[in-house]
Design goal:
CATH superfamily of the largest domain: Periplasmic binding protein-like II
Number of strands: 13
Shape: globular
Largest sheet: 10 strands, mixed
Number of domains: 2
Helix content: 25-40%
CATH architecture of the largest domain: 3-Layer(aba) Sandwich
Strand content: 15-25%
Order of helices and strands: HEHEHEHEEHEHEHEHHEEEHEHHE
Length: 307
């Protein structure tokens, strides 16, 4: 009888220890879709909209922490392929070759489109001509002298804007002369505001949501109207022209999650693609993938608050 009691006591002790151990694992900050800490790498050309999304996400889910790093498109894709990061936000989808690399690693990337962005051309305020033909930019990238363009200014040789314009021009390398690059869109904006004749190539999000220190600089710029290759009209990178698919330099934005498990990356992607995230996109001046609905309250009579 005493032996049975000892055995029963040992079993109870083991069960209690297992329960306490499981509880300690849960309380230790185990990652879920709404809890934990992850690092997200963003294309530098679209950083402002992602900063807004993170601020609201963390303000809604207090146990979630997202560490944001910005890099050029080529750098962040390379980090993703080499498993240095698992979640990126970029201005292009993965290529078929990149997807096949993940298949070999037995990881299925979750790709979520969440907004339509645009590449904008900017010039100094002293430049009275606010029109530019996309063909002129393409010719300049091919090394053909163009009277209207003294120089093109990009943020980074490895950026998504460089890749986009190179693809349009169908050139492998940028010209040796007349093309300048820095590290960030902020540096491009500042340089163009101080130098006449230069055409800056930036993500429109930096213009629609300038940081406090950039607001005065933005006032010294013209955002150019662009004539596409198939249309004689000029359009600006406004939300309306992007929505109507008139602006020729629009591009979709994606969050790519390669965590390989149900974690905070999935939760953040669902948030961005959800109602709140899409409203943040709409307010930013970009075009959401799904236009948030609006609830209308219909009343039979007007209520006078002063009564």
């Amino acid at each position: 009888m005493l032996k049975n009691v000892k055995i029963l006591g040992l079993i109870v002790f083991i069960l209690l220890f297992a329960m306490c151990n499981q509880k300690s694992k849960t309380d230790s900050g185990e990652e879920t879709i709404l809890k934990g800490k992850i690092e997200v790498t963003v294309d530098e050309t679209i950083r402002p909209i992602v900063e807004d999304q993170i601020a609201v996400f963390e303000g809604t889910y207090y146990d979630a922490k997202i560490v944001l790093k910005s890099k050029s498109e080529a750098e962040l894709i390379n980090d993703l392929l080499n498993k240095k990061t698992n979640v990126v936000i970029t201005a292009r989808d993965l290529t078929q070759a990149e997807k096949e690399k993940f298949i070999k690693l037995k990881i299925k990337p979750r790709v979520t489109p969440f907004a339509t962005d645009a590449i904008a051309f900017i010039s100094n305020k002293n430049n009275n001509d606010t029109l530019i033909a996309l063909k002129s930019v393409i010719d300049f990238m091919k090394g053909i002298p163009t009277p209207k363009i003294k120089g093109l200014v990009f943020d980074n040789p490895n950026s998504s804007t460089v890749r986009y314009i190179k693809n349009l021009a169908k050139v492998k390398d940028i010209p040796a002369e007349g093309v300048f690059s820095f590290k960030t869109n902020e540096e491009v904006i500042k340089f163009v505001s101080e130098n006449d004749g230069m055409i800056g190539v930036v993500g429109v999000n930096w213009l629609s949501q300038p940081s406090p220190k950039m607001q005065d600089i933005i006032h010294n710029l013209n955002v150019l109207y662009v004539k596409g290759l198939k249309d004689d009209n000029y359009y600006s990178p406004t939300q309306n022209d992007i929505a109507e698919q008139k602006y020729p330099l629009a591009r979709e934005l994606y969050i790519i999650n390669c965590q390989g498990y149900t974690g905070l990356g999935m939760g953040f992607a669902s948030f961005i693609a959800g109602d709140i995230g899409q409203r943040i996109v709409l307010k930013s001046g970009l075009m959401p993938i799904k236009t948030p609905g609006r609830k209308l309250q219909i009343r039979n009579r007007i209520i006078n608050d002063k009564e």
